[in-house]
Every structure is written in C-alpha cells, then in structure tokens.
Specification:
Largest sheet: 7 strands, mixed
Number of helices: 14
Shape: globular
Strand content: 15-25%
Radius of gyration: 23 Å
Oligomer: single chain
C-alpha cells in the first residue's frame, strides 16, 4: 500500500471537487484529489456541457426562423452529435488532468472510502493508497440518476441522463419518464433531432417553478409534435424481443418506444464510501461552511451535500469550503456570518437556474409559493414580456412572461421567474438584486438599455407602483 500525507483530500474530481482543491491550494495548502472515473465529472461529460451542446442548435434555428426574412434551415443530426462530442472532449480527460497539474493539485485514480478520521483509502487498478489529511477530507462525489422501483424498468436497461447526453444514434421513438428539468431538456433535444418523443410525467412539468413556466413549456412541446402526458404513471416496463420498449401505464394504456429515458430525480452518490452513518434525508448534513455536522474535519459540497443540485451552486459552495478549510488550517479568522466569505448563504434564497427548453425558463430566488411557505408578506407582480420593444426585435411573435416576488416588509426583490426566448441571459441581474438585497427604490435607478429585452425591469417596477 502506498501512503501519502497531505493537507486536504478531495473525493471527486468534478468541477465542484476541482474548485475545493484549487481554493485550498490558493490558500497555501497541499491538496490531493481522488477520482474513479473521468476528471471533470458529470457536468463535463454527461450533463451540463454535452446537453447544452445538443440543445443549442435547435434553439439557434428557432431563433433565426422567428424573424421575418429568414427562410429554410434544418438540423444535421450527425453534425450536432459531432459538435457535442467536441464539447465533451470526446470523453477524454487528459486536458482536465493537465489543468490539475498546472494548479498544483495531485491526482490519485481509484475508488475512495473514508476509513476513519482524516484517513482515506483508495482502491486503484493495481494498488491501494492510504491518504492522511492533516486538515480536511471533502466529499464531492456528485449525484446519480434515481431509477424508480417500477416493475421491469431496470431489466429494460433504460437510458439515464448519461445515455441521453452521450447518445451516438437518434432513436426513432423515445419515451421520457419524468417532468423535471432533465426530462424537459431531453424531450426538447430529441424532438429537435427528429425523434418521436413521448413525455410521461406523474405531475405538471417543472412543478418546482412557477406554474406558468411548466404550462408554457408543455404547450410548446405539444405544438412541436411531442406527446406530453402530465397524469401518466408507468406500471410496468418491458424490453421486448425486437429491442423495443413497452410501457404499460396505470389504466392499461400501452406506449411503445425504441428507447426509454428515466429522468425522475437524482440521489447524492455517497453510499458505500464510509460515511453512511452521517447521512441525512438529502445527503450529508452540513452547516453553511459546508462542514459535516458532528465533525471537525469532514466537509461535503455540491450534490453530495444535497442542498442545491446545480453545478454552479456546487462550485459556489466549493469556493467557500476551500477558503474556510485554508483559514481554519492557518488559524485565521472565519467569516461565517450570513453572506460572509466562508459561507454559502445564497443556497437558501438566491439560487439561479436556467432550463434550456423551448421556451427557455430562468429563475432566481423564491417562487410565490415558497415565499408564502416562509410566512413572508409578499406581493407578486406579473408582466407580459412581449410588450417590451426589444422582444419584438428578438422574434416577430415573441411570447414570454415575467413574475417578480417582492418582500413587502423589506421592499426588496426575493424572486424572479422569466419564460421566453433568450431569458437565460437575463437572469443574473435578478440574482445580483436578490443576493445584494437591493431596495426597489434603488433598483429604480438602474436604467435598462433601449431597445433590449432588459427593459422589462423598468416595466415590472412601474407595475409595482414606482
């Protein structure tokens, strides 16, 4: 067994783990990162990057066709897949490994388990390595697709998000189980690539967002020929002798497809790595400095912590964790007050998200329902985005909607949801306003440029009464 001693051990070399290790090294510590698969993680090879590479060509084509004067145009599925392969680095992590080396982060390949306080055992292909961390062990192992207990589903070898984003052929018929972000994006991209898509959800689409968002996406998918069922409960799934998939719904209806994709949630990938006794309901319980409850040396970030399962939010947590580990190791003051340098306060109320559907959905902060649940005296302000002059320049028949949620006691924005073409690039202004707790009376002085879509900010504030 090889033995290594270092300051920080990070288990998981996805973008979240890489950020922890990088911040710790920048803070003057030594770091070793452990990875059992590809350095760069889920986001680089099977999630964020390849999925958006698959979605962008369809969005670009629709954007062009939405303006009078543009005619024709079609997607070339083979070229779209080739472009996607480039964004996934052809599933070769050598570039990411080079970055680790340039950042001064040591890499150990293999499967890791926590073997005791400050101790990690890594099982590699030809040897075991024991790593002792002088200061901290960080769990950054990400999450994996949940496969629900539907009879026959596992035996049918369904696609998960990994197979969806790395597909080398386009199925003629694709059934997607689920109604969340992954399901909606999968339905969008394969409809773009000419699959006959059936989307089977047990509940309204995008139900964690404002209801009008899911309704707009549902209607647009149906208009493009996707069969969307929001009351569908699969009772049994069978992979038939000819390779096709038969899905039996409650009530007896049958759906036939060439492939079935499961997008019914994700679970932190934390079981079996030596921390099962520390697991909470949604992952490892951590405080706002990302330290695991009941320990002084163990941290969890990203999906492993189960706070917010979004790459950008995990990287934000990682920066806080790497910085606080370095500060504690050197005996420096820890800034753990709300919105301090060493905490991930934004996880609670200022999370941004973009769904790359058609139309796009972008949100930051709280929905109206979440504000009500928190007992907040709030006011909802809606605005039709098509009334903004800049919207008509984007698309001749632009359709979209904005909803602001205002904390009436503090006079600040606490939530914004946008639906419409191109709204993903508009949401960061809301994230700044929410995280910065900018009073609406001051936000009034942030004048939007004309004629751009961002003029909706002025119109929302006018609707509010300013």
């Amino acid at each position: 067994m090889t033995k290594i001693e270092t300051d920080v051990v990070v288990i998981g070399a996805g973008p979240v783990g890489e950020n922890v290790a990088d911040r710790a090294v920048r803070g003057g510590l030594e770091a070793v990162i452990v990875e059992a698969e590809l350095v760069g993680g889920e986001c680089s090879y099977w999630a964020c990057m390849p999925s958006k590479a698959l979605l962008r060509p369809g969005a670009a084509l629709r954007a062009a066709q939405a303006v009078e004067g543009v005619t024709g145009g079609a997607l070339d599925p083979a070229a779209v897949l080739k472009r996607r392969d480039g964004f996934a680095a052809n599933w070769d992590d050598s570039g990411q490994v080079q970055w680790l080396d340039s950042a001064g982060i040591a890499l150990v390949r293999g499967r890791a388990r926590v073997a005791g306080e400050h101790r990690v055992i890594v099982e590699g292909e030809d040897r075991e390595t024991e790593i002792v961390a002088r200061h901290a062990v960080v769990i950054a192992t990400g999450s994996e697709a949940r496969i629900p207990d539907i009879p026959g589903l596992r035996a049918a070898k369904p696609w998960t998000s990994r197979e969806v984003t790395s597909a080398q052929t386009i199925p003629r018929r694709l059934a997607v189980l689920g109604g969340g972000v992954v399901a909606v994006e999968a339905a969008t991209m394969f409809a773009d690539l000419s699959s006959q898509v059936t989307l089977l959800s047990r509940s309204p689409l995008l139900r964690s967002l404002e209801p009008f968002a899911g309704e707009a996406v549902r209607d647009a998918l149906r208009a493009r020929g996707v069969t969307v069922r929001e009351d569908a409960s699969p009772a049994e799934v069978t992979r038939q002798d000819d390779g096709s998939v038969r899905i039996l719904l409650d009530g007896g209806e049958e759906i036939l497809a060439d492939e079935v994709a499961v997008a019914m949630g994700r679970a932190p990938r934390v079981h079996g790595i030596g921390v099962d006794d520390l697991l909470g309901d949604h992952g490892l319980d951590v405080d706002d400095t990302l330290r695991v409850a009941g320990t002084e040396w163990l941290y969890a970030v990203g999906d492993a912590a189960g706070r917010v399962l979004l790459t950008h939010q995990g990287k934000y947590e990682a920066r806080a964790a790497g910085d606080v580990i370095a500060a504690r190791a050197k005996g420096e003051p820890v800034d753990d007050a709300p919105w301090g340098r060493h905490v991930a306060t934004a996880d609670h109320a200022a999370v941004p998200q973009v769904v790359f559907s058609d139309p796009e959905v972008a949100s930051a902060g709280l929905t109206a329902a979440e504000a009500e649940k928190r007992g907040m005296r709030n006011r909802v302000v809606d605005y039709d985005l098509s009334h903004v002059a800049g919207a008509g320049l984007i698309a001749d028949d632009y359709a979209g909607r904005a909803r602001a949620v205002v904390d009436e006691d503090r006079g600040v924005l606490v939530g914004l949801t946008l639906v419409g073409p191109g709204v993903g690039e508009q949401i960061h202004a809301a994230t700044i306003a929410i995280a910065g707790e900018v009073p609406l009376t001051r936000l009034w002085h942030a004048v939007p440029s004309y004629p751009t879509l961002s003029e909706f900010w002025l119109r929302l504030l006018e609707e509010y009464g300013l």
